[in-house]
Structure formats: C-alpha cells, structure tokens
Automatic annotation (TrEMBL):
The keyword Zinc does not apply. Catalyzes the ferrous insertion into protoporphyrin IX. Residues 342-353 have a biased composition (Polar residues). This is Ferrochelatase. Pathway: Porphyrin-containing compound metabolism; protoheme biosynthesis; protoheme from protoporphyrin-IX: step 1/1. Transmembrane segments: none annotated. Keywords: Cytoplasm, Heme biosynthesis, Iron, Lyase, Metal-binding, Porphyrin biosynthesis. One of its GO terms (molecular function) is lyase activity. Residues 342-370 are annotated as: Disordered. Belongs to the ferrochelatase family. Its EC number is 4.98.1.1. It catalyses: heme b + 2 H(+) = protoporphyrin IX + Fe(2+); Fe-coproporphyrin III + 2 H(+) = coproporphyrin III + Fe(2+).
Amino acid sequence: MSRFINEQDYFHGKSECTGILLVNLGTPDAPDKASLRRYLKEFLSDPRVVEIPRIIWNVILHGIILNTRPAKSAAKYKTVWTENGSPLMHISEQQQQALQKEMDIRFQGPVKVALAMRYGNPAIPDTLLKLKEAGARRVLVLPLYPQYCAATNATTFDKVFDELKRWRWMPELRLVNHYHDHPGYIKALANSVLAHWEKQPRGQLLVMSFHGIPKRNLMLGDPYHCECHKTARLLAEELNLKPSEWRVTFQSRFGKAEWLQPYTDKTMQALPGEGIKNVDVVCPGFAADCLETLEEIREENREYFQHAGGEHYHYIPALNDNSEHIKALADIIQQHTQGWAETTPGWSTTTQQRRAEKTLQRATDKGAKQ
Ligand SMILES: C=CC1=C(C)c2cc3[nH]c(cc4nc(cc5[nH]c(cc1n2)c(C)c5CCC(=O)O)C(CCC(=O)O)=C4C)c(C)c3C=C
Ligand SMILES: [Fe+2]
Ligand SMILES: [Fe+2]
C-alpha cells in the first residue's frame, strides 16, 4: 500500500506526449432539480467562489440557496438545453476536437488535448489521470477564461494541484494565467463582431457584457475588472469605435452584496431613455455560449431592453469553435509549450511531405534540363 498514485505499468522507453488540459466551469448533468442541486452544491461550496466565512455561508447555502435555487435554475437551463445537452458542454467538446486537429497539424511530437470541467464532469482529477495514461509527462493547463479571476482561474489551478499532490511522479506543469489581451483573441472577437454587422444593421451601441464578481474581490486585488476593461478597450480599438459607440457592463450578479458596476440589466433598462434604441451585445469573457449568455443575455436582457422602449437588440454569439478562435487558442498553446522538446513547433508531417515533394520536383526539373 502507498498513499500515492504509483506508476503501475511503467517501463523504460514508454512513449511520452504533451497534455493540454482545457478547463471550463462545468454544467449540470441534466436540467433538473436534483442535478442542479448537486452541481450548485459543489460550485457554491468552493471558498474561491464565495468568500464569506464558512460558518455563516454554510447556513445560508444549505438552509436557503440549495432549497430554492436548484428548481429556478433548472427551469432556466431547460430553455437552453438542446438534443446535444448543455450548450457549454457541447461547445467545449467541439473546441477540444478542433484544437486536437490543430495540434496534430502544428506540432511534430504527440500532443493530447483533453477537456475537463472545474465542477461536475468530466472532472479535473479523472482527466489528468487519462492524460497520465496517455503518457503525458508535460501538462499545460489552459482555463478557458480570457480574463484572470480567482473565482475561475485560481480555483482551476487549486484543483489541479490537489490532484497532483497524490501522484508519485508528477508531470512538468505550466499554467496559462490569462489571455485577455492576446492579439489573436482580440482579432477573433473583432472579426466576429464585423461578421455580425455584415448580416445585421449595426446598432447605435456595442455593449460588452462580462460576468460580474463581487466589488470586494476587486478591492482585495483581483485583476479581473482591469483585464475586462483592457479586453474591451483593445476590441474597441480594433473596431475603430468612438467612445460613445461602446460600453462595458457586468452581468450575472449573485447574492445581495455589491458587484462590479455598471450592471448589464440596469443598463439595458436605462439605454432607451438615453435615446439608444438599437444595441448589439457581445460577451467577450465567455469562450463558449452557456446559460449566462444564451438565457441571461440573449433572452432576459432583450426583454428588459424592449420593455423599456428599446427596438433592436442583437446578441453576438461567443467565439465557440469558430476557426479564428481555435487558431488563437492554438497560438496561446504554442507560446506556452515552447521548449518542450517533442512539441517544438515545426513542420507538420504534411508540411514536411510537401517540402520533400518540392525538393524532389526541383531535382527532377534540373535533371530534365540537363
Ligand atoms: C466567465 C467567467 C466567470 C466568472 C468570473 C464567474 C464568477 C462567478 N460566478 C458565480 C455564480 C454562478 N455562475 C454561474 C454560471 C456560470 N458562470 C460562468 C462563468 C463565470 N463565473 C459560466 C460559464 C456559467 C454557466 C454555466 C453553464 O452551465 O452554462 C452559476 C450557475 C447558474 C445559476 O444558477 O444561475 C452561478 C450560481 C459567482 C458567485 C462568481 C464570482 C464570485
Ligand atoms: Fe458564474
Ligand atoms: Fe445568470
């Protein structure tokens, strides 16, 4: 017996690979009360998510929230659930598959891209074990949150560290902290807005709505607020927008404390009164569409806006598995895996083959001339 996870079938010369662990938030297994209760219990028990002293929070969570919220949230999830299940899960799987293809093209050595969710399934420990079985001696953790936040990125890293604490032979580990100002990500966002404007008449204002966090977290030094504003400024610059043509708001407030302002819902209720009756809304902080974009932004906030006298409200989808997004994420992976011998970005097999064919052709041409 050993307290650690051992290398049961280790043998010398076993083939190795680089593992890329993509992580998003997670989603309930089904849009029903029992699944929501399980999911919310795990999520909201995380001290990185709710930073209230445990003794007080446990009473609120178990006494009130877990008795009221699961049914209400399940009803909301039902409105976005599709035959493929939760949008967040389905889109994340598409991203994983597309990134695996991109890695196979870009890298010489074997790279295995795996998807995990911070809460629910597929769990981070199980996915790390799968990467281990595949021979991943190097692991890059890429949380799919462009803006760093302790409630999302730090808790992802916590979970990875907790699992690796149990291993006898730890892999080399690298973490992507954030990519809020990555040029490829900003360009992909800008092009998705431009593509939308080609199909729909452009609104008077582009609202960039980010998931909120408690204001206290900002005061305690969380860089999230600042990174959201930087993303927004870079996106506005890329789109050549005047200051009056764009605005940052924060959505998805949870609980009674003050969160980052201005709130998206209050803004939507106020805009028609300011003479802004046509808006486009984009959520640059969400790598994949989910409950918070599809239900809260695409539907709920449209109602607030139109109820207040707004006319045209267009939601611009998240980047999802859009090819420019996948290329930007692949660039981020490439930057962060530099120096890991087997993944040295080089010519893919097809590129090498094409080069060899060209060389052969040149030699043949030369031979023919002589
Ligand atoms: C994009 C980054 C996110 C940050 C930052 C974030 C902070 C944060 N969230 C809650 C509470 C809830 N969030 C919920 C859903 C949810 N949150 C994110 C992303 C961020 N959260 C996503 C992608 C999702 C959607 C998941 C899906 O299945 O589609 C929920 C659950 C839904 C509900 O019951 O309303 C809660 C609760 C807090 C408290 C917080 C920061 C402290
Ligand atoms: Fe959230
Ligand atoms: Fe919400």
